[in-house]
Design brief:
Blueprint lengths: L1 E12 L3 E4 L1 H4 L6 H8 L3 E4 L6 H16 L8 E5 L10 H8 L6 E5 L5 H14 L5 E9 L9 H4 L4 E13 L7 E9 L7 E3 L12 E3 L1 H23 L8 E4 L4 H10 L11 H4 L6 H11 L8 E8 L3 E8 L1
The structure holds oxa(dethia)-CoA.
Length: 324
């Protein structure tokens, strides 16, 4: 018998305010046409002034718990991926823990920017396999609207706010690829690429939150090359190949990156969950949002083989293979 971390529930939350591309046309030198054709983005959600990352995360976590038929006191651990925390500390995860009324177990944040949810999932899986926790809430939540430079047309049109969550539970599997749950993961980072995607502030430097800075085309080139490669490696580690994939659930940054990665993996676009048109890039929230919306749409079904992959600031990138 082999222990597996199986998905019991999924949920998401998007702030009410929807911002179409046309809203940017009045403010900066851009067009709906440029944004759509270069990125696939049509609209994104922005949090209300009094709404924080922990609010979004708590709403997504509550939805995932309801989907799993569980209550917060049954959860052993919360692992939350974000780069836009409410405060420098405490962690957003402990704030969510309190908002859910959960007084036992433990909670912490993971910071791997847009790859954060992949790193959080891999950590949660390791904790379940080692017996540290049996039920883990894994959350990706962001308010990137708070760190955008509204004068920089190369970045401010790309990002959105939102949150998604999964409930994982330990279950005995047979040890074969037919098992439900996480089957493999593959993680990477290379800090020498810091300058192509970073935030120009922080507690130990400027004492401010700072603004996002990106050399878009340099990140684009790394994304196209590294995402298919890490997805292939994760599949290989699980003893699987591209032909076994039911759904690619990619990080939602740019439709052209998503399509190029699918093409390199020889998986048709009909087998890719795409939400970037409606959400923009929500960083660590994008994969759990896409998993939740994919299930809601009737795309993802129990037993489906899913490959998730993401890349972001660091650079940090990776992939997780799981059977839903
Ligand atoms: O999630 C974290 C990882 N991030 C990503 O994966 C993002 C990766 N990068 C991208 O998605 C793309 O590189 C962008 C969407 C950011 C940019 O697309 P691109 O095709 O790489 O465009 P570019 O940066 O090479 O810029 C092309 C042109 C430039 O004008 P010139 O120099 O050719 O005259 C830009 O100034 O497009 C211009 N441009 C814009 N024009 C209208 C840049 N932003 C805009 C804009 N509206 N919003």
């Amino acid at each position: 018998m082999t222990l597996r971390a199986v998905v019991r529930g999924v949920g998401h939350y998007l702030p009410k305010r929807v911002v179409p591309n046309t809203e940017f046309e009045a403010r900066i030198d851009t067009t709906d046409e440029w944004i759509r054709t270069r990125t696939g983005i049509e609209r994104r959600h922005f949090a209300a002034e009094d709404e924080t990352t922990s609010d979004l995360a708590t709403a997504a976590a509550s939805a995932a718990l309801a989907d799993a038929g569980m209550t917060a006191d049954q959860i052993d651990a919360i692992v939350l991926a974000t780069s836009t925390p409410d405060f420098t500390f405490p962690s957003v995860a402990t704030m969510v823990q309190a908002k859910l009324g959960m007084t036992s177990g433990f909670a912490f944040d993971v910071q791997a920017v847009c790859a954060g949810f992949i790193f959080a999932l891999a950590n949660a899986n390791a904790m379940i396999l080692s017996g540290q926790a049996r039920r883990v809430l894994v959350i990706g939540a962001e308010t990137f609207s708070r760190i955008l430079d509204w004068e920089d047309r190369g970045t401010c049109v790309l990002f959105g706010d939102g949150a998604g969550a999964l409930v994982l539970e330990a279950e005995e599997g047979s040890g074969t690829t037919a098992d439900r749950g996480i089957l493999s993961s593959d993680l990477h980072s290379d800090g020498q690429y810091r300058d192509i995607l970073y935030v120009d502030g922080g507690p130990s430097t400027t004492g401010t939150a700072g603004h996002l800075r990106m050399q878009g085309n340099a990140v684009f080139r790394h994304a196209v090359e590294k995402l298919a490669s890490t997805a292939h490696t994760a599949l290989e580690k699980a003893g699987l190949g591209s032909g076994d994939v039911d759904w690619i659930v990619p990080h939602q940054a740019n439709l052209r990156i998503i399509a190029a990665t699918a093409q390199r993996m020889q998986v048709p676009m009909e087998r890719v969950v795409v939400t970037v048109s409606d959400h923009g890039n929500t960083s660590a929230a994008s994969i759990p949002l896409a998993l939740s919306v994919g299930k809601q749409r009737g795309q993802i079904k129990e037993g489906d083989l899913i490959v998730t992959e993401a890349i972001g600031g660091g650079l940090a990138w990776g992939s997780v293979v799981l059977r839903w």
